[in-house]
User: Which sequence fits this backbone?
């Protein structure tokens, strides 16, 4: 019996070692690919294989970005865009989760609402951007609303899918033990639905950022989207690439922030 336990322990340690090696190799591969890509871009631009006017180069983008950061309004634009994105993302995720969870309370309410929810999800929300900007103005509010609109339905549908996956037998058992409807909701429905809601976070943060940028493209006094639009109008291609680079970095940071949030919200569910 003891030998078996020792064998199992060695197997677990081997699995952990393999997983660690894979994780390290993946990270090395990711960084290597990024470095090689930037180096190739720089050399192709320097050797005139690609047109540096249209495609710029990493070194030129870095210099232009440094100037925009120290002498321009890049920092304020970054705060504006990230703030609207995070605020709209938070509101959309919260109210979307409440909307999806509310479908558990009534069979008829959920069945009547479902086709309208799906229909609204099929509507390209970005097409409503001009109307929303007119309604809420060109300021911060309209960008938050756009980010909110991009995320609320996705979260609601994810939560609704989780609601439909709730174990009916477990519900019956809770009721048989004297549990009230609210107890079943908080002890069974919400924990079951949580992974479904959390799974939508990575998608939502990208959608929220897209909504914010489109709002800034249409009309805005600040933001990375406004900076890119302005740079395009004055034919400053390098500044356009700075905006693209900043948005890329911002999206990566937000993605890993949602990964951290996902682990935090699901902590303990996977034996962590």
Assistant:
């Amino acid at each position: 019996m003891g030998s078996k336990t020792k064998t199992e322990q060695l197997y677990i340690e081997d699995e952990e070692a393999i997983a660690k090696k894979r994780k390290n190799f993946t990270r090395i591969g990711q960084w290597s690919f990024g470095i090689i890509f930037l180096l190739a871009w720089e050399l192709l631009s320097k050797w005139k294989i690609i047109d540096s006017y249209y495609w710029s180069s990493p070194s030129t983008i870095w210099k232009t970005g440094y100037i925009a950061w120290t002498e321009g309004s890049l920092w304020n634009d970054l705060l504006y865009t990230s703030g609207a994105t995070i605020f709209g993302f938070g509101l959309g995720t919260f109210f979307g989760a409440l909307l999806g969870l509310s479908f558990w309370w009534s069979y008829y309410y959920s069945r009547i609402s479902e086709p309208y929810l799906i229909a609204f999800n099929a509507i390209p929300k970005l097409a409503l951007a001009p109307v929303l900007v007119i309604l809420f103005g060109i300021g911060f509010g309209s960008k938050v609303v756009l980010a909110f609109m991009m995320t609320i339905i996705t979260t609601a549908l994810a939560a609704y899918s989780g609601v439909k996956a709730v174990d009916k037998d477990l519900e019956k058992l809770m009721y048989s033990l004297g549990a009230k409807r609210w107890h079943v909701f908080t002890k069974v429905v919400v924990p079951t639905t949580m992974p479904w809601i959390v799974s939508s976070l990575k998608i939502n943060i990208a959608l929220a950022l897209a909504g914010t940028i489109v709002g800034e493209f249409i009309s805005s006094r600040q933001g990375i989207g406004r900076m890119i639009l302005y740079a395009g109008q004055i034919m400053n291609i390098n500044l356009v690439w700075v905006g693209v680079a900043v948005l890329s970095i911002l999206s990566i940071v937000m993605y890993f922030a949602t990964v951290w949030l996902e682990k935090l919200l699901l902590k303990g569910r996977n034996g962590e």
Q: What stands out?
A: The chain is about 85% helix and 0% strand. The mean pLDDT is 87. The two ends are 27 Å apart (CA to CA).
